[in-house]
Amino acid sequence: MLRIHFSDLDLARTHLAAEPDPMWEIASSLHRFQTRRGRWAHERWYTGAVQALRDTELGRAVRTLLLPLYPRAVYYPDFLTPGESAEGLEAGLDAILALPGSRVTEEIAHLDPHKGAAARLRALAAPRQRRVLTDTLRAYHQVVIEPVADEMRAMLDGERALRSRHLLDGGVEGVLRGLGPAFEWRAPVLTVLDHVDSRDVHLDGRGLRLVPSYFCWQQPVTFADPSLPQVLVYPQPRTAAEHVAASSERALAALIGGSRALVLAACAAGATTSEIARRVGMSAGTASYHTRTLREAGLISSRREADSVLHSVTQLGVDLMRQTR
């Protein structure tokens, strides 16, 4: 378990990422190549990425440089996900280039020596080799991440809308309470229940940056070094087209119809009618029609909030979605 300790100042300085973080998405996407866990949620992306990388110079660089540098393990170097990437890909790459070689050497030394990666990667302490790394990361982002950029943006918009409602209803503590079953908030400690190691992090007035991630799967992630500005990367709920397009979800579409399956999935994290229409790609009137049908079937519930209607999945709807996976 990871236990994150907040003060009142930390709560005041806690915020949600405004944009997908490109460096964290690169890291989490590379982990998707190293396990079958969660592949159903990224099936279309995975198939396209493998095809795009096959028999290419970039594909070879992914195998020989990026995968060893980003192992799906307890540790990979913190310098690969700099805080500057909150300002975009180029800002993150520039931060990697600006690092002192001593920090690169120190962090690479912590990679599992039994995997044989640390010795090969020490050359990245040299600025010229680090330029090779950043060029590779830029190319990887263009080929592998950008094809799903619109979906990433739409999912983050939905997540921010949901957390905004939590903030209005319960303040920052309401946001922390609502992060999902992987977390437990008992003031002043946020516990990450399924974390790769057991430790305590005291924010000491620095606050916390919450980063919803498209490619992160099940286990939230943070920096290994507790002295760095703290970030908590957590998986976004799989919703809408990504949820239904996976082969294991096609049974749901066959059962209730493709459009209604998309609408049901879009309600998984809570959504208004207009948010559903935007995520799924249909008119607000069509979205309203499908939500009425799903509500009459007992699969979603709806309640009015100011000028909007908020839809969420009922237990029956959750059970149906699980049974058709």
TrEMBL record:
Domain of life of the source: Bacteria
Record keyword DNA-binding present: yes
CDD domains recorded: HTH_ARSR
UniProt cross-references to Gene3D superfamilies, sorted A to Z: Winged helix-like DNA-binding domain superfamily/Winged helix DNA-binding domain
One Pfam entry name: HTH_20
Domain (HTH arsR-type): residue spans on this chain: 240-325
Alphabetical list of InterPro entries matching this protein: ArsR-like_HTH, HTH_ArsR_DNA-bd_dom, Metal_resp_trans_reg, WH-like_DNA-bd_sf, WH_DNA-bd_sf
GO MF entry, a single one: DNA binding
Alphabetical UniProt keywords: DNA-binding, Transcription, Transcription regulation
Official protein name in the record: Helix-turn-helix transcriptional regulator
